[in-house]
From TrEMBL:
Keywords: Transferase. Pfam families: Glyphos_transf. One of its GO terms (molecular function) is CDP-glycerol glycerophosphotransferase activity. GO terms for cellular component: membrane. The keyword Transferase applies. This is CDP-glycerol glycerophosphotransferase (TagB/SpsB family). The keyword Cell membrane does not apply. InterPro entries: Glycerophosphate_synth (IPR007554), TagF_C (IPR043148), Teichoic_Acid_Biosynth (IPR051612).
Length: 395
């Protein structure tokens, strides 16, 4: 979760109460207001304009401005909304944010209503019964079993629709999350509209490395983190002499995108950047994951949701499963991590090296598991935003 926004709701209860109260009362005067419908859209905890929510926001702005005014909710501690001139951007936690929430006809969030759309929503959700709330999701579910916090319970109950990428995800949310069928809609993921499917590269010259987060690492001290399997495995991969020489001798560039929660530890990673070996770290504040997915020829990851995009594009993937047993015990996965991966499974650094060597020597530029894509993704037509808007908003 976004620590800044989470603490904001806890530390300023009086300010939140005053804003919410005033916004709720004022919103009553807008009940019969005419004009376009109001939709609030947010994702990535307001910290970036990326992923499903941002793609859907762009779609509404570009295609349905007359019927719907689509607002983007952003973290006021960031400057991307201003620098990127994002239309109808509103700071989270502002009075305008709360007023719009009570007036909104629709909301669409990627992670949580609480952190993407309106802070402290769980405390006053009962005051808003008119807004249609839709969870558009962050990535296709499967790698991580759901963790439901106390504040999530009323939010999940109040959510009207849960978007699904496919029948696979529909059944997972119905059977594992216990979401009522009438709340589940299969319209595809907005972010897949960004690119054509089945676009394997002509050669492998650029590798994107992305590792996801583990919640049990969050409260570790600096010393504990540096001794963690997560850090040692990641560093071990980047320091591996065979991998470094393989990159250098074949002119392969390795781009590393650290998880946002890794920011407080980034100083321990950055010294491993090495232009001679083509190893580069992306700047989280300015990097575009969308652009990185398009520009890179393959993905090296553990279980990040970006792997679904690479499968969609028919680009090769190496799954670095360095802590599979620990991960399975502490979090768990709906997928069988031994059988269901749609890429090369490599449990050790040496396995990653051997796999990369095999791929380079055999000029592997496609995903050998691409035939499994339609097991997890129902639509490849770039109409996911259109379907979502029609299904929820009838536009």
């Amino acid at each position: 979760m976004s620590v800044t926004l989470k603490e904001k709701g806890r530390w300023d209860p009086l300010k939140v109460f005053l804003k919410v109260s005033a916004a709720y009362i004022l919103s009553r005067f807008y009940r019969n207001a005419k004009g376009p419908k109001i939709a609030l859209v947010g994702g990535n905890l307001g910290e970036k304009y990326e992923d499903n929510a941002s793609v859907f926001h762009k779609y509404l702005v570009n295609n349905h401005a007359e019927q719907v005014t689509a607002y983007w909710m952003y973290d006021p501690a960031t400057d991307y909304a201003k620098n990127g001139q994002i239309p109808n951007a509103v700071p989270l936690g502002s009075f305008r944010n709360y007023l719009l929430f009570f007036r909104a006809d629709y909301t669409f969030h990627g992670h949580s209503l609480l952190y993407d759309i309106v802070p402290s929503a769980d405390k006053f959700l009962n005051l808003n019964r008119r807004t249609v709330i839709t969870h558009v999701s962050h990535g296709i579910e499967g790698f991580k079993k759901i963790l439901i916090q106390k504040e999530d319970v009323p939010l999940l109950k109040r959510t009207d629709y849960f978007n699904c990428a496919s029948r696979y995800e529909y059944e997972l949310k119905r059977d594992k999350w216990k979401i009522p069928e009438e709340k589940l809609i299969i319209t595809g993921f907005p972010r897949f509209d960004r690119y054509l499917p089945n676009q394997p590269p002509k050669e492998m010259k650029r590798i994107l490395m992305m590792m996801t987060w583990r919640e049990w690492l969050f409260d570790l001290s600096r010393e504990e983190f540096l001794e963690s399997n997560y850090f040692r495995s990641t560093i071990g991969l980047l320091e591996h002499e065979g991998i470094r020489n393989l990159l250098k001798s074949n002119g392969i560039h390795l781009q590393i995108a650290l998880h946002p929660f890794m920011k407080r530890f980034e100083e321990h990673f950055f010294p491993l950047a090495d232009q001679d070996y083509g190893i580069e770290f992306l700047d989280f504040n300015h990097a575009s994951i969308e652009r990185s997915i398009e520009e890179n020829d393959m993905l090296l990851t553990d279980i990040t949701s970006v792997s679904w995009d690479f499968l969609y594009l028919n680009k090769p993937i190496i799954f670095f499963m360095f802590d599979q047993q620990e991960y399975t015990e502490k979090r768990g996965s709906y997928l069988d991590l031994d059988k269901d991966l749609y890429g090369y499974r490599s449990p050790t650094v040496e396995d990653v090296y051997n796999t990369l060597t095999y791929m380079v020597e055999n000029n592997i530029t496609h995903n050998e598991w691409y035939g499994k894509a339609d097991e997890y993704i129902d639509y490849f037509d770039q109409d996911n935003c259109k379907r979502l808007a029609q299904r929820v908003m009838n536009v």
